[in-house]
């Protein structure tokens, strides 16, 4: 494991921070490492039934495109990944899952970011009695697709979001 000799936070924002760490690497050499510090996140595979998935169409400013994605979001401080999955499902597609099943965990960009994504299968979806809060920077349109349609969209390049590609390839059988 690396030994952190010093750390300076160069930027701290609402979504992430950027640190420059001076570290002694496992082979003994020292180096400055730039690291994007990001809260862990959840990625949801909401299945209204065994053959369908709900994707969201969302405008992403950094790439200036509308993208089809699986619902996802950051885990709040003190929140469990399962609770975050329930909250994000409600916020992004307006439904609450009765069952939240862990599928996998991945680091999407470990070369420069410490974010870990927790993938969950969300089933037994129901409409809650109250509307969910949406972030002011989110413009989201949920839509139901067959799993076969969504996977074909990946093959045709119509789904360009990596977490969605990975999530759609996960085995959803219990």
- DSSP E strands, number: 10
Q: Alpha-carbon distance between the termini? A: 36 Å
- Derived from helix and strand composition plus strand pairing, the structural class reads alpha+beta
- Largest sheet, order of strands side by side? 7-4-9-8
- Roughly what fraction of the amino acids lie in strands? over 45%
Order of helices and strands: EEEEEEEHEEEHH
Mind telling me the CATH superfamily name of the largest domain? Answer: Nucleoside Triphosphate Pyrophosphohydrolase
The CATH architecture assignment of the largest domain turns out to be Alpha-Beta Complex
Question: What is the CATH class name of the largest domain?
Answer: Alpha Beta
Remind me, CATH topology of the largest domain? Answer: Nucleoside Triphosphate Pyrophosphohydrolase
Helix fraction bin: 10-25%
Walk me through this protein's architecture:
This protein is of the alpha+beta class and 174 residues long. The protein has 2 domains: 3-37, no CATH class; 39-169, Nucleoside Triphosphate Pyrophosphohydrolase (Alpha-Beta Complex). Helix content is 17%, strand content 45%. The protein has 3 helices and 10 strands, in the order E-E-E-E-E-E-E-H-E-E-E-H-H. It has helices spanning 81-93, 147-155, 162-169; strands at 3-12, 16-24, 30-38, 41-46, 52-60, 65-69, 72-74, 96-106, 117-126, 140-146. A 4-stranded mixed β-sheet has the order 7-4-9-8. Strand 1 and strand 2 form a beta hairpin. The longest helix has 13 residues, at 81-93. The two termini are 36 Å apart.
